[in-house]
Design brief:
This protein is of the alpha/beta class. It has eight helices and five strands.
Amino acid sequence: MNFYISLFISFVVGMWVMLFLLEYFLHKRYKQVLKEGYEKINSLPPNERQIYLNRLNQISSLYISEKNLNNLYRVEKEVENIIYEIDNKKEEINLEVTNNPLDKLNKELMKYKNEEKGRNFEIFVGKYFENLGYKIYYNGIINGRRDEGIDLIAYNKDEVLLIQCKNWKENSKYKITDKNLKEFIGNCYTFIKNNPKIMNKKIKRLYITSCDVFSDSANYFIEKNKELIEKKILKFD
């Protein structure tokens, strides 16, 4: 009897240590990602920081409320998007014409340029699947940042396609990684759980880009998990 009690205590202690270590490494990674985001935001002029600070604070509060891998992936994705937008914003600002009375308007237009590129690509992808006979729900455009990581939902009587769209530059230093794919799969599971009616159809998860921005880790992950996720490249100007 004493042996079994000792074994049980050892098991409980071991599980506690594992949970402690997992929470420690999650929090360490979370702080590192946030630091990268704040450093990039602080490189902007003071009057341009607030919108990005609000986004970062909003997604970080999600992780603080529920510390798990899925929410950590969401924080990482948002930081990647913020860094990408700021880098492109800086390139565009350098091209501005000074002393132009339309400067203020141009700045506002450029502020939404990247978001507009994303929306236009989502519409392009939606039309592509419409031509294949699917009905389309533009989840990202309709719900914005509340889209739960799914931009498009394409469906017919037999199947449902859950789609993430990325319209990134081909020469961008940022790539789709295996972490992005894992986060998308996690978002899909959450969506399916919250919408059980679609479970009577065949469900596919598609990650669609306008050019080849998949990293080696992403391609390897897709190759090993073909039943979970597919990639597709639809050229878009």
